Amino acid sequence: MLEVLFIGLSVGSILLLVALGLAITYGAMGVINMAHGELVMIGAYVTVLSGIWLGANIFVAIPIAFIVTALLGLLIEHVVVRRLYGRLLDTLLATWGIAILIQQAVRLELALSFFGIHIQGLGPGLQNVSVPAILQGTFVIGGAEINRYRTFIIFVTAVLAFVTWLIMYRTAIGMQVRAIIRNPKMAAACGINVARINALTFAFGSGLAGIAGVMMSGFKTVFPDMGTSMVVDGFLVVVMGGVGSLLGSVLSAGILGEINGFVAAATNDILARAVVFGVVILIIILKPKGLFALKGR
Amino acid sequence: MGISRRTLVKNAAAFGAFAGAGLPHIWIKNADLARAAGGEIKVGVLFSLTGGLSIVEKSLHDATMMAISEINAAGGVKGMKISAIAEDGASDPKTYNEKASKLVIQDRVPTVFGSYTSASRKAVLPVFEKRNNLYFYPTYYEGFECSKNVVYTGAVPNQQLSNFIPWIVKTLGKKKFFIVGSNYIYPREMAKVSKILIEKSGGEWIADEYLELGHSEWGSMVNKIKGSGCDVVLSNVVGDSVVAFYREYKNQGLTHDKLPICATVTSEIEIAAMGPEYAVGSYTSFPYFQAIDTDRNKAFVERYRAFVKDPKAVTHHALESSYFQVFLWKQAVEKATEVTPVAIREAVKGQEFDAPNGHVKIDPDNLHTYLTPRIAQWQANGQGKIIDAYKEPTIPLPYVAYGETESNLFCTGKGLDTAKLKI
Helix A58-79 to helix A36-53 angle, to the nearest 10 degrees? Predict the structure, then answer.
């Protein structure tokens, strides 16, 4: 029982890890960032590369991945997304294109493979990251064997969610972000530099994706296509939780994770996934704006 | 669905050009004619160079191209050079079908080498059957197919499991099987054969569970394995799920010395992807491993590494079949009186070749390949240590799950005897 609860929690935290960055960019800026999964992939590759070239382990890779993907996010915002605010479907298409570009850049080793130069750790092949010994195996709590690496993921997700909450609700920038979520034009009229705040928000959301990538690299294969499927799961959480609501994302990730965990334990994983999608559909029918929708003005 | 105007115009134009050229023979009727026509013999090479499956399929493509370049370097076939037309299946069955049609209809190749998944093979099958063309398929697969237009050079279930299951029960002394796989035809058919063999060997299977292809959330499944009371796990998990599975297995505290994973898909390529430390002590059954200790195989591995310019590249079962099947084809073309798909198919029946894995032979009835089953235990260096092997190649029985035996073949030169199939 405790083990099933724990697995549900860990599934939920992985969902939240991917959804957190999406929740910020979609919620605050109305950008459907289809390249989010590729930013996760970049985070995973940063872990691989920092392992190969710097000898750094997964802990050291977290801040590096955050900085790299945040800078990449800033670049994407400046070059493409900035020109598309208020055009929801256009952002979808444009960021999808960016996703493909990023994938190919990794696959072609930043186009250096055309010149016969190979960067170890990049390219179309499969890469892996070894997890430090203290994160391998299990420890026992109340008779249940608890997986160390999953505990670590839950811990990191909790810290990231808390930090995001702190920034959003306890800083001046966070207040400006929330004002933009409610009404961007009014926020601009009140003297908020919307363009600058949006850029920072996008960079922060991208940075969170990078950290998600570091976590993913510990239990998944790292390869150029790995991010593609993650975006769907991320939007599942964001849409069910309610756009722009941090609490909504946290709760919906938790609920979906536990549903997945319990149904999988009782029957099988295939049915569990179907049930998760069924629940999301049901909730969107009953509450079209998600569980914790913000009241519009 | 009708023929669109565009296709009509295109076809009419093509036919016009065709007729204008004096209706040349579609097939090269004899070697002299071919030599006159430029001394080339075209073949199709169809693997995914992009998309999710490209990681594995690129290596099969490379092995095929390497075989072709080796044959050309040694003088070609009957004095003709092989000219490969490579197409990209893009990890998508629909693209596979289109590219196969292009190769068969437009390029008029007498043979295509290709496919890694059953899905892509099923997608191209109608093209080859309708045009009576010839396809060489290198991957181990679930059997349950009897086409006179396909030559199968990978293992079928009886060549992976007929030695494996009895060996697990007798040598490892494990009796309670937990069968786990990806949710599609290959793992389910493998499970079907396994269950028959497990019961025959005096063991029992206590569960039979599946996960979506590409799924990487193994928490619940490994927890279920842990609580099931099994003493061995039989894995038919495919693709990058393999990596997540073995990692979760270790991270939940399971070890291969107490509860080994015995796998039918996990090859050198997946081991390299997960990191060998997660697989040390587990087992796989395949006719070919990179570690096969013969001079022929060592030279093959070296040549492959030189060919792809990667000193760490690994070879694996489907890759090796991709390589040797081109040589079987070459021998068939040399024996055939004309270079047509039908003549090549008739000539390939009973062809034998000394492949890196050992002696192989095409079964004249079902066009599958005699291969030598082997069992390896994975080591810390990412290589399989071969600990059990058949002395000689075994007969391929694609319908073993439905009761096919050596003396009672379902798939013969005359086609499939459907009366024997009890589904």
Answer: 140
Q: Are B100 and B77 in contact (CB under 8 A)?
A: no
Per-residue pLDDT of B374-412, as tens digits, reads 999 999 999 999 999 999 999 999 999 888 999 999 998
With CB atoms and an 8 Å threshold, state whether B243 touches A261: no
Q: How far apart are CA B205 and CA B187, in angstroms?
A: 15
B253 → closest Cβ in A14, A138, A272: A138
Rounded average pLDDT over B250-264 = 93
Q: At what angle do helices B241-251 and B219-227 cross, to 10 degrees?
A: 50
Amino acid identity of residue B24, one-letter, is P
Residue A139 DSSP symbol: E
pLDDT tens digit sequence for A62-93: 999 999 999 999 999 999 999 998 888 999 99
- Using a CB-CB distance cutoff of 8 angstroms, which residues of chain A are in contact with residue B316? none
Under 8 Å between Cβ of A168 and A246: yes
Å from A164 to nearest chain B CA? 26
- Contact at 8 Å (CB) between B356 and B260? no
Q: Most B CBs within 10 Å: which of A268, A273, A275, as the mutation test of the B interface?
A: A268
Q: Hey, is the C-beta of B40 within 8 angstroms of any chain A C-beta?
A: no
Contact A126 B221 (CB under 8 A): no
The pTM of this model reads: 0.87
CA B314, CA B268: separation in Å to the nearest integer?
6
State pLDDT tens for residues A278-290: 999 999 999 988 8
The token duo for A113 is 């493979």
Token pair in block for residue B162: 């007929």
- Residue B126 has which token pair? 């109608």
Nearest to B55 among A126, A265, A269 (CB): A126
Residue B294, Cβ neighbours under 10 Å: how many? 12
Complex ipTM value: 0.86
